Amino acid sequence: MRKVMDRLVKDKSVLDTFCTEFCKVVEKHARYIIVSGFLVIASGRSRGTEDIDMIVERMDKARFVKLHEDLVSHGFVCMQSDDQSMIYEDYLTKKTGVRYTFDDKPLPEMEIKFAKDQLDDFQLAHRMKIPLTGLDVWFGSIEMNVAFKEDYLKSEKDIEDAKHLRKMFKVDEHTINEFKKMIRKAR
Fold this sequence. Notes:
Elements: E1 2-4, E2 7-9, H1 14-27, E3 32-35, H2 37-42, E4 51-56, H3 61-73, E5 76-78, H4 84-91, E6 98-102, E7 109-114, H5 118-125, H6 142-153, H7 156-168, H8 173-186
Parallel strand pairs: 4-7
Antiparallel strand pairs: 1-2, 3-4, 5-6, 6-7
Helix pairs in contact: 3-4, 6-7, 6-8
């Protein structure tokens, strides 16, 4: 364990390492954010997951091909296909996620989705690094994650995740309520 901002942060896990290595490649090509369950796990909640959710800014095919080729050169593979055109045209542009793993390991997975609406664009514009996690990656805001989990996703696990985020971070209730309004309007 190590101390960050007067809080203990766990030593890096397989998920932490995978996330960091993957994000280093993506960051060379596009803005991104990590959202949902991994943010909660990275901030200390003990719960299982085998995938990490990433929203990436929309891009044209040529730019995506460069990103994909760079991921492959760093040992990642796309589970849906090796064909960059298929990944781009049949999945990402149709608002469907694709999953990447290390070439030699089926887990963990990074699920990538292109930003699909103004809400995702807003999140990308207001992304943040969260020192408490001990990770040098971009996350969606804490308040937006709480709003999504409480007001959109609503599963028992998501409600518990939101409670954890509220406990770990000083959140602004007014901002959470404004984000809930944005979510209802956009989704």
